[in-house]
Design brief:
It is a single chain. Helix content is 74%, strand content 0%. α4 runs antiparallel to α5 and α8 runs antiparallel to α9. With 211 residues, the chain is mostly helical.
């Protein structure tokens, strides 16, 4: 019998195969023109196997959403004293922008940003995704600061908005013909500046220490 570690690695490889196959097909044919059965056939797995890993077709586009959201919340919750939520997620977000270069070219146009630029359905998914990010980050801020709930909500929306900008800009620039390298190079200083501005704002909005 295979060990638990081996089984988990095999499951991770199968999940990655399905997600990459879906991205490639979405890139080649568009989101609306690809069915789950097409993904299963191309990946050489049963259609039910796809649904075992992705409950809906929509999750084939947002397959890393939960992982990203959890990482953002962990960074906010575990940040050192005196560090703003924006500073806590800065390196992770900037690495995500730089990581645009590392996505295989055959898969890039099947990623969330490029798809959202041309598909109303995926655009809606992107908006819903960042709304969920905002709610989760808000909870993490509420759990770790004494700012009023409405300010925590505003801060959560602002931080999730950084990802909305990344998704939107990646899609727009792809549609205009920019290469992945150019997109990463152009976006990096923009997102860096936004995060620095948010850091200043969130630091200034921190309530004063109790006497």
């Amino acid at each position: 019998m295979s060990s638990p570690g081996l089984r988990e690695r095999k499951k991770a490889r199968t999940r990655r195969l399905i997600a990459d196959t879906a991205a490639r097909l979405f890139a080649e044919h568009g989101y609306e023109h690809v069915a789950v059965s097409d993904v299963a056939r191309e990946a050489e797995v049963a259609e039910q196997t796809v649904y075992n890993y992705f409950r809906t077709k929509e999750q084939l586009v947002t397959d890393r959403e939960e992982q990203i959201r959890q990482r953002l919340c962990d960074l906010v919750r575990d940040r050192p004293s005196g560090t703003s939520p924006a500073a806590a997620i800065r390196s992770y977000v900037l690495d995500s922008v730089a990581g645009i270069r590392r996505i295989p070219p055959a898969l890039w146009r099947g990623e969330l940003g490029p798809l959202a630029a041309i598909s109303p359905t995926v655009h809606r998914l992107a908006l819903e995704l960042t709304d969920r990010q905002a709610a989760a980050i808000t909870e993490a801020i509420t759990d770790t600061t004494t700012v009023p709930p409405e300010i925590a909500k505003l801060q959560g929306i602002a931080l999730a908005g950084v990802f909305r900008i990344i998704i939107g800009e990646a899609g727009r620039r792809t549609a205009e013909g920019e290469s992945q390298e150019a997109i990463a190079d152009g976006l990096y200083p923009i997102i860096e500046n936004i995060l620095d501005e948010l850091d200043r704002w969130l630091t200034a909005s921190r309530p004063p220490a109790s006497p």
